[in-house]
Amino acid sequence: MRSSVEIVFLGLFTFGCLSEVKFNAEDAELTTPEITQKYGYSTETHHIHTEDGYILELHRIRASPSFGRADPSNLPVLLMHGLMGSSADWILIGPEDSLPYLLSDRGHDVWLGNTRGNRYSRNHSRLSTEEREFWDFSFHELGLYDLPAMVDHVLEQTGARRLHYIAHSQGTSMFFVLNALRPEYAGKFQLMQALAPAAFVTHLKHPFLRFLVEHQAVATFVLESLGVVEVKPFPNDWTRLVDALCPDFLNRALCLDAMHSLTGSKYPHLSVNGYRMVWHHVPAGCSVKQWAHFGQLVTSGHFRPYDYGPERNRARYAGQSAPPDYDLARVTVPVVIYYGLADELTHPADVELLAEKLPNLVALNRLPNATFNHMDFLLASNAKDALYDSIISNVEQA
User: Fold this and answer.
1) Chain centroid to CA 17: how far?
2) Are 114 and 79 in contact (CB under 8 A)?
3) What is the reported pLDDT for 253?
4) DSSP secondary structure, 314-335, as one string
5) CA 87 to CA 249: how far, in whole Å?
6) Tens digits of per-residue pLDDT, 342-389?
7) Contact yes or no for 168/53 (Cβ under 8 A)
8) Which string of DSSP letters, residue by residue, matches 185-212?
9) Which is nearest to 341 in space by CA: 303, 320, 367?
10) How far from each other are the two terminal CA atoms of the chain, in whole angstroms?
């Protein structure tokens, strides 16, 4: 039985101000590899082990129906999703507009990552998802263990010395953690392109998330009392309910009002079929500790590891009562940043602070559309023209 507290958390990172989503409604029922293969893209599934025992699933788009097999002279491209996301996040707007398809159509070897705990990476060499220990991780572990395992696997499989890395939200947090803690990995990245980067999040504007952060001690106590350690994907019964309640234009208006009440955002351009695609694929699952860690960043104003309290911190962080900041001066990989003016989660002021601290910032790109929000980086119908063409150009010129 899903608790009411769990349901409150579900989907809050899912939506922004969305433009109309275009896709085939049948795709809502398929997995990422099933969707990409349906549109003629040769796709492989890879399973890799992290240093601490998690088993991750990667999806590789190796050939395009228009280009054929990827050009081996091109460096591979690794795409990483955000909090509660999965590899499916990158293909929700269909084969004509989604970034992985566009890259593959130009001869690039595309890899879609999945972090521990989402629907594709729920295995461990010794732990079960029913054990609390399985869910004892935040984005810190994703950066320290998951990302290097993926990078090493991609380079081993392709024979390349470096790769391109493109990430959304938490996917950028992982990158900054890895390069701050293990700077030897800098040589394995050709270029990092950060979409709505999440490092400093002090200016969080989302009203409900801000409320939860301000009452985090109570929220944490309630969740721990209920034994809630993970945020699960929506169950099939829930997605069937959405399908039943939002089948036509009349009910679409009611569903929009309900979503507005829950998330505090309006979605005037979200299509009827868009409900099915998003609700079936997002959220894809994560740990509650990931949420708590981001909440700590909001209140502290720092980008740093998880805060366990003064006593436990001293045991973990060499006698320090507070966690040490991640040293962003060690992030020497060239970085290109894209951010939106209407992003309530990664606010422009926080993105600009991050940019100031990066020693090898190539470009800081503000999206010109004043309504561009957090999930528009993945779901806006004009994402190709507004964003993806620029990203692809950077890949091909770096």
Assistant:
1) 17
2) no
3) 58
4) HHHTTT-SSPPPP-GGG--S-E
5) 30
6) 998 999 999 999 999 999 999 999 998 888 889 889 988 889 999 999
7) no
8) GGGGEEEEEEES--S--TT---HHHHHH
9) 367
10) 50
Tokens describing residue 10: 């579900």
d(CA 62, CA 76): 10
Tokens coding 113: 């990552």
Contacts of 211 (CB under 8 A, 6+ apart): none
- The residues pairing with 336 across neighbouring beta strands, listed in sequence order, are 193, 363
Q: Band of the pLDDT at 252, cuts 50, 70, 90?
A: low
Q: What number of CA atoms fall less than 13 Å from residue 51's CA on the CB side?
A: 10
Taking the CA atoms of residue 143, residue 295, residue 342 and residue 189 in that order, the dihedral angle to the nearest 10 degrees is: -10
* 361, 333 Cβ separation under 8 angstroms: no
| Whether residue 283 has a cis bond before it, omega within 30° of 0 | yes
Q: Chain centroid to CA 205: how far?
A: 19
Give residue 239's Cα distance to chain centre: 21
Residues 331 and 335: their CA atoms lie apart, in Å, by 9
Looking at the DSSP bridge assignments, the partners of residue 339 are 366
What proportion of the chain, given as a percentage, has pLDDT over 70? 83
For residue 111, list its beta bridge partners.
60, 78
Residue 66 and residue 105: Cα distance in Å, rounded? 6
Phi and psi at residue 389, in whole multiples of 5°? -60, -40
290 touches 137 (CB < 8 A): yes
* Catalytic positions, written as ranges: 169, 343, 374
Counting every residue written for the chain, the total comes to 398
CB 130 within 8 A of CB 296: no
pTM above 0.70, yes or no: yes
Q: How far apart are CA 31 and CA 86, in angstroms?
A: 10
CB 232 within 8 A of CB 130: no
Q: Which amino acid is at 276?
A: R
Is-contact 119 283, C-beta < 8 A?
no
Q: How many CB atoms lie within 10 A of CB 134?
A: 21
Contact 76, 164 (CB under 8 A): yes
